[in-house]
Write a structure and sequence with these properties.
Layout lengths: L2 H15 L10 H6 L8 H6 L11 H14 L14 H10 L6 H19 L8 H12 L11 H17 L11 H6 L10 H5 L12 H6 L6
Length: 225
């Protein structure tokens, strides 16, 4: 992994740790519109968990989102990146639901991204190698990319980066963070069924198992008092 890739991973991991132990990454809109935990939306059922797209994104747009998110949070040996964590699944489901107001934002932003890639490199974004993809993303981040009107290049970059973080580190019930990949990266224990007195007294980070998300917790048998 290049130093550039390491820096991107370190930035997103550090931002997640600083966002209220990950819980702060759960968007209010998603939390408020999430269906009861014992049911699934048709889109979620069609996706399975962390699998793919089809709720909103078409094949071409999905491939671009995957490539963009993977450059923001690249994988490494033994460490999941955006693809392994199901960030595409998260973004696709969100755009079909709580983030439906951003559908046109994404359509126009992805079209402008490809137009800028073609103008500067004569290829679509997904056809570029990692170095040129990074150069395109840097131009967006710095507001130097042409072909963008609405959304602006920086607004599109910031939105995709935020959604990549959410897909990496929010509770798996929202469609990302597959197999707790993001939580494992930052050592977040998730929702534990019980903490022992020793766990509560320890000064080091909690490293025990199991790690549970909201969906798994909702299926756990209720204790009688």
């Amino acid at each position: 992994m290049s130093k550039h890739d390491q820096a991107r991973r370190a930035f997103l991991k550090g931002a997640a740790v600083g966002a209220g132990a990950v819980a702060g990454l759960v968007p209010d809109a998603l939390a408020q519109t999430q269906p009861p935990q014992h049911t699934q939306t048709p889109a979620a059922t069609a996706h399975g968990h962390g699998g793919g797209h089809g709720a909103f994104l078409n094949d071409d747009d999905a491939a671009t989102v995957v490539a963009f998110a993977e450059r923001l949070m690249p994988g490494a040996p033994g460490k999941a990146g955006a693809s392994e964590a199901g960030v595409l699944n998260y973004i696709d489901l969100a755009l079909a639901g709580a983030y439906a107001d951003l559908q046109d934002f994404y359509r126009r932003g992805l079209a402008a991204l490809d137009a800028f890639s073609r103008k500067t490199h004569n290829q679509r974004f997904t056809q570029l190698d990692a170095a040129r993809q990074d150069a395109v993303i840097a131009a967006l981040e710095q507001g130097k990319a042409t072909e963008f009107t609405w959304p602006s290049a920086q607004a599109f970059f910031n939105t995709v980066r935020t959604h990549t973080m959410e897909g990496m580190f929010a509770d798996p019930v929202y469609g990302g963070n597959k197999d707790f990949a993001g939580w494992l990266l930052i050592g977040f224990p998730g929702a534990q069924p019980v903490f022992s007195p020793d766990d509560l007294a320890r000064k080091e980070g909690f490293t025990g198992a199991p790690m549970m998300g909201l969906q798994a917790q909702s299926k756990a048998p209720m204790r009688r008092t």
